[in-house]
Design brief:
By secondary structure, this protein is of the alpha+beta class. It has 21 helices and 32 strands.
Length: 704
């Protein structure tokens, strides 16, 4: 049998009423109430010093000195965060200064008629001792008066004040100023820190609506702890999305505070308590731009005048964070989990992935292993101004609600990727680098709008055809082999050009090149002596697909070490140019996919020679692209598919590079390696995982 002590000998309104504990403990017959002042298995009190020396397995924390030195003194909290948590100080705190009562004139330059300041005594709570000023003379007169009045006090702490800026553009609730009161429960059980809060948060509005005529009236300018509203009422007024933005900021602050509590051991097993916990009260306000500000951190939160629902949630949270984390199953008490919201001491990153190629369960498993990620669903999108990591592919790329999302990291770079992603630009830019010439086939740009407007342009195209050479005709923005044709003479090419003009020319009136489908083409010399793969004693044409991960400078770029093979459907014949089954290469035509000796029967020394050329090519490639991020993304990268062919002389030739690559083949291992590589090499670099889960996929990539 375990014993619990609930010591409430002062005004019951100052604490959680005893019956809320009793009602919960009654649900487990292995617990009983006791008034024993020697030992308890669980102990709760507010300011009942008769029990401070009780030896407890779990007891509430009392070390006021440590609290005041760090967090709960209105002055020290600002200095503490400025030194130890600059993110909180710079982002979430208002201007603040301690008052030197011996030199009041030093604050004169702060004041003007447009700006108000709040004066607070550091030792008081609620609204006691608070004054509002926007005039230095009145401020000086009051400080002279109050300093003289309190001069008899021997405790100098009682003569300390802070002056903080009054936030004029506050978010209003029912046309009143208000603050959020958040209960922050921290426990230290078996050496492990945990923190929780209860939802929904509480709102304390001012007693009166705002009024220009009452600039100094506390009843209309300062919230009242005697008035309590549920945050769901605010949600009804401003909407769910804005409410979640506010909640996420407050939880971020609490997570950082928990880090500080751990670092400085602000909460520790005090004196006779083997395990401990405490309830803090944190006060926040928001400006009209939904930017949260931390106002106070109280280690003696006022627990009076709250609803039955609030008391019940507090007790459930206290029990779950202490008893249910320490004792074996038979002593645990059944609580309602929906009351409890866990606060993490690390930042929990957010991700949104809309992929046609990577399975959702596989993605979620990767992020779950890292331990500090939250998946954002479509229903939650409206709750976030920005998402940490966004990945979109396939048709999702065309959906504005995903493409335009603000993110910390997204898998899309700006339009400069066209410098290598458009077939005409790729060759034109590579031609500028002398050492790239060996990787290129002769190529010409063709604008079919010129053919449509000037039939003599056809004669120019005719002049490009050389005797005994074969040409491949490809749309600049095409992918997946669509609309590609192979010609051995101009006549067949001319016929095809006329078909394209008839089908697409109406679209060429649009001024955006990406919407002028099949206007721009390249005529490229065709490789008639390709290296072939022996399969079932027959030789087939193939090309190699490499995967290239681009990040803007100065971030590293990578390519996947081993490419995969796309094979023609029929054995190779140097002829029959109009038969796509001989000359078109596809991934689904080959049951093995790696460009290795084991899968292709190409000797290892030849594989090594080809791979060395591939590495040389990538070092040239990154010189001709300088893509950055779109404005809505702080950081970015993009995955591209790079296609090579090999001649029978083992010469590497670049075919094209596609950023909108499809991964619709069923090569699940390749998809797994690709996505895990992206997460390991790119995402983990920006968002360090709580639990590092290094896998072998990242070792399959080479940094360029």
């Amino acid at each position: 049998m375990k014993e619990y002590i609930i010591a409430i000998n002062r005004d019951p309104k100052e604490t959680i009423p005893r019956e809320y504990f009793d009602n919960l403990f009654k649900t487990n017959k292995n617990w009983k109430n006791t008034t024993n002042t020697v030992h308890g298995d669980f102990f709760f009190t507010i300011n009942d010093k008769n029990y401070y020396d009780t030896l407890n397995e779990i007891g509430i924390y009392f070390n006021e000195k440590i609290h005041k030195n760090y967090l709960t003194n209105k002055s020290n909290i600002f200095h503490f965060f400025k030194k130890e948590a600059t993110d909180i100080y710079e982002k979430y705190m208002v201007y603040h200064t301690d008052i030197d009562t011996n030199n009041i004139d030093k604050y004169k330059d702060l004041f003007d008629e447009k700006k108000r300041y709040i004066l607070r005594p550091t030792w008081e709570f609620a609204r006691r001792g608070i004054k509002i000023f926007n005039n230095f003379d009145k401020f000086k007169d009051y400080m002279t008066y109050i300093t003289k009045k309190n001069s008899h006090r021997q405790n100098i702490e009682l003569n300390k004040y802070v002056l903080s800026e009054f936030i004029e553009n506050q978010l209003l609730f029912k046309n009143r100023y208000f603050n959020f009161r958040v209960f922050f429960i921290v426990s230290l059980i078996n050496g492990i820190y945990r923190a929780y809060t209860i939802q929904p948060f509480i709102i304390h509005p001012a007693e009166k609506e705002i009024s220009n005529s009452n600039s100094y009236d506390l009843e209309s300018n300062i919230s009242s702890s005697e008035l309590t509203n549920d945050m769901t009422e605010l949600e009804e007024e401003i909407g769910k999305q804005k409410t979640m933005i506010l909640i996420n900021q407050m939880k971020d602050i609490m997570g950082q505070i928990l880090n500080l509590i751990k670092k400085h051991k602000i909460l520790k097993n005090y004196e006779n308590n083997k395990n401990t916990y405490e309830i803090f009260g944190i006060d926040f306000i928001s400006d009209s731009d939904l930017k949260i500000k931390l106002i106070e951190f109280n280690h003696k939160p006022g627990l009076n005048e709250y609803t039955d629902d609030t008391y019940k949630k507090l007790v459930h949270t206290i029990i779950d964070s202490t008893i249910n984390k320490l004792y074996e199953k038979k002593y645990r008490i059944k609580i309602n989990k929906k009351y409890i919201d866990r606060i993490h001491s690390y930042k929990k990153f957010t991700y949104l992935i809309k992929s046609e190629y990577f399975p959702e369960k596989f993605i979620d498993k990767i992020f779950k292993k890292r331990g500090n990620w939250h998946k954002v669903t479509d229903d939650e999108l409206q709750n976030y101004d920005e998402i940490d990591f966004v990945y979109i592919d396939g048709l999702n790329y065309l959906k504005k609600e995903y493409f335009s999302l603000k993110s910390n990291l997204k898998n899309t770079v700006d339009d400069d990727k066209r410098s290598i992603g458009f077939k005409n630009n790729l060759m034109k830019n590579l031609e500028k680098i002398p050492e790239a010439s060996k990787f290129l086939m002769k190529q010409y740009e063709i604008d079919l709008l010129n053919v449509n407007n000037d039939k003599e342009y056809l004669q120019y195209i005719n002049s490009l055809f050389e005797k005994n050479k074969i040409y491949i005709f490809k749309p600049v923005t095409g992918m997946g082999g669509s609309d590609i044709k192979v010609f051995e003479n101009f006549n067949n090419c001319e016929k095809y050009i006329n078909e394209i003009i008839e089908k697409y020319s109406k679209m060429w009136k649009n001024k955006e090149p990406m919407k002028q489908k099949n206007r721009f083409w390249v005529l490229q010399e065709y490789i008639q002596n390709p290296l072939l793969i022996n399969k079932d004693n027959k030789k087939y044409k193939f090309h190699i697909r490499h995967f290239f991960i681009y990040q803007s400078d100065p971030h590293p770029k990578y390519y996947k070490k081993i490419g995969k093979v796309a094979l023609a459907e029929k054995p190779y014949i140097n002829g029959n140019w109009d038969d796509p089954k001989i000359h078109d290469t596809h991934f689904h035509n080959f049951d093995k996919y790696l460009f290795t000796t084991e899968d292709t029967n190409i000797p290892p020394d030849q594989i090594e020679l080809i791979n060395s050329q591939i590495d040389e090519f990538y070092k040239i490639l990154i010189k001709i692209i300088d893509a950055k991020c779109y404005p809505e993304n702080k950081n970015c990268f993009e995955l591209a598919g790079v296609d090579f062919m090999i001649t029978d002389k083992l010469e590497l030739k670049i075919l094209e590079i596609n950023f909108g690559i499809g991964l619709s083949d069923n090569l699940t291992q390749n998809k797994k390696e690709l996505f895990e590589g992206i997460i390991d090499l790119i995402v983990d670099d920006y968002f360090p995982p709580l639990r590092k889960h290094k896998n072998k996929s990242s070792e399959l990539f080479i940094m360029i």
